[in-house]
Design goal:
Number of helices: 15
Cofactor: pyridoxal 5'-phosphate
Protein name: Pyridoxal-phosphate dependent enzyme
Radius of gyration: 27 Å
Structural class: alpha/beta
Shape: elongated
Strand content: 15-25%
GO molecular function: transferase activity, transferring alkyl or aryl (other than methyl) groups
Largest sheet: 6 strands, mixed
Keywords: CBS domain, Pyridoxal phosphate
Family: Belongs to the cysteine synthase/cystathionine beta-synthase family.
CATH topology of the largest domain: Rossmann fold
Number of domains: 3
Number of strands: 16
């Protein structure tokens, strides 16, 4: 058997039982692995549905351009379909999204415009507004509008819901989905409730999003809105695809819990999932007291972990945000294992001879160079030697003539692994500001000394 093109492989994704990460949950928990879709996310389903519905309605014409505001997954689905069907794509996204997502869209020939996150949806700079403007400006363009285009929910009503019902032989009791556009939870949830009204549909929300309070009070509270790190779920407006009548409960999950759980899923279940899945599993564990023996829970695995390698799967990124604390040495702990040292700097206007005397007097091998009170470069023994061998008269020259680029700056939470990678033949040290804002230097000797204690 073969398929005529890659679009025919969308759907019919497997259900996989979770074991270790849900060992304290009385119910059976199954993960719907949407990462096996060609675009590695559940958004492939609705992306193709939106395109085909638009073609039928005459909204998307041959040779047209697809415009969309997307965090990456919907864009991927649209881009793959566009390759097969012969359309161009222009996507707008936010600067919150991972680089991997943006690079992946560009790999399929899409143009991607990155917009600021911390602006209102109606702000002309927002990725919603920019995509709407492009729709008007670009000839023969169609905007998919995943948030309000009900083909989104339709795809999950016609595909995801029936698949789950058949795969569980109608035994599903709970559906758990991270809610962003709302298409997955509303479409699949509506189908399942039509089959069995007793099925509970739980939506996972994030702090900084309006969904939970709106569901519980009917109030759209702008005070609930603030920036958050979790990707793929939560919103600062109400998409038309979010059918609140289908969703029985919203559970909020913190950025930290979502990020750390994302890593745990890979380490305990061997499932390489994205950030919204981490949030969903964390939410499930928060709600475990509401589950009993005999319950059958299905959790959607929305997208693939490869799109979060620089974030949730990066230990330094987690430490910088205070999400990860372990026994591994960091810049902060290296500093704590030595006596406080006044850092020595030299002004760029000083002479090379003065730098030589400072190095000799203090028995050091490198000095950060300042200019107008800021770090502008560095001068080391090897820099001085190289310049004097080339021209002995350079000892009367200004330091700025022989200095090289500054030592790298690191954060107090930067791990010893990353610091060690930064210290090499070109950079014999790194710089860091301590908790009082004082400049400190960490050398290879400091690392060795810290490890020996």
């Amino acid at each position: 058997m073969w398929y005529n093109n890659i679009l025919e492989t969308i759907g019919n994704t497997p259900l996989v039982r979770l074991n270790k990460i849900t060992k304290d949950v009385k119910a059976t928990v199954l993960a719907k692995i949407e990462t096996v879709n060609p675009g590695n996310s559940i958004k492939d389903r609705m992306a193709l549905q939106m395109i085909e519905d638009a073609e039928r309605e005459g909204l998307l014409k041959p040779g047209g351009t697809i415009i969309e505001g997307t965090s990456g997954n919907t864009g991927m689905g649209l881009a793959i379909a566009a390759v097969i069907k012969g359309y161009k794509c222009i996507f707008t996204t936010t600067d919150k999204q991972s680089k991997e997502k943006i690079d992946a869209l560009r790999a399929f020939g899409a143009e991607v415009i990155v917009c600021p996150t911390n602006v209102e949806p109606e702000d002309p700079r927002s990725y919603y507004s920019v995509s709407s403007r492009l729709q008007k400006e670009v000839p023969n363009a169609w905007k998919a509008n995943q948030y309000d285009n009900l083909s989104n929910s339709k795809a999950n009503y016609e595909q995801t819901g029936p698949e789950i019902w058949e795969q569980t032989e109608g035994k599903i009791t709970h559906l758990i989905v991270g809610v962003g556009t709302g298409g997955t939870i509303s479409g699949a949830g509506r189908y399942l409730k039509e089959k069995n009204p007793d099925i509970k549909v739980w939506g996972i929300d994030t702090y900084g999003s309006v969904f939970k309070k709106y569901k519980e009070t009917g109030i759209f509270d702008k005070d609930e809105i603030y920036p958050y790190i979790t990707e793929g779920i939560g919103e600062d407006f109400l998409p038309q695809n979010v059918d609140f009548s289908v969703i029985d409960h919203f559970e909020k999950v913190t950025d930290k819990d979502a990020a750390l759980m994302t890593r745990e899923i890979a380490r305990k279940e061997g499932i390489f999932a994205g950030n919204s899945t981490g949030a969903s599993i964390a939410g499930l564990l928060q709600l475990k007291e509401h589950l009993k023996e005999g319950d059958l829970v299905v959790v959607i695995v929305h997208d693939h972990g490869t799109r979060y390698l620089a974030k949730m799967y990066n230990e330094d990124w987690l430490r910088e945000r205070g999400f990860l604390k372990d026994e591994k040495l960091t810049a902060k702990s290296i500093l704590s294992r030595r006596e406080r040292q006044e850092i020595v700097t030299i002004d760029a206007d000083k002479t090379v001879l003065e730098a030589i005397n400072t190095i000799k007097t203090l028995n050091i091998s490198q000095i950060p160079v300042t200019q107008h009170g800021k770090i502008a470069g560095k001068i080391t023994e090897s820099d001085i030697l190289s310049s004097l061998l080339e021209n002995p008269s350079m000892k009367s020259a200004g330091v700025q003539e022989v200095m090289t680029k500054p030592f790298p700056f690191v954060d107090l939470n930067t791990s010893i692994d990353k610091i060690s990678l930064l210290i090499n033949k070109e950079n014999t040290a790194v710089l860091v500001e301590d908790e009082l804002g004082r400049l400190e230097i960490i050398t290879q000797f400091d690392i060795i000394n810290a490890m020996a204690i």
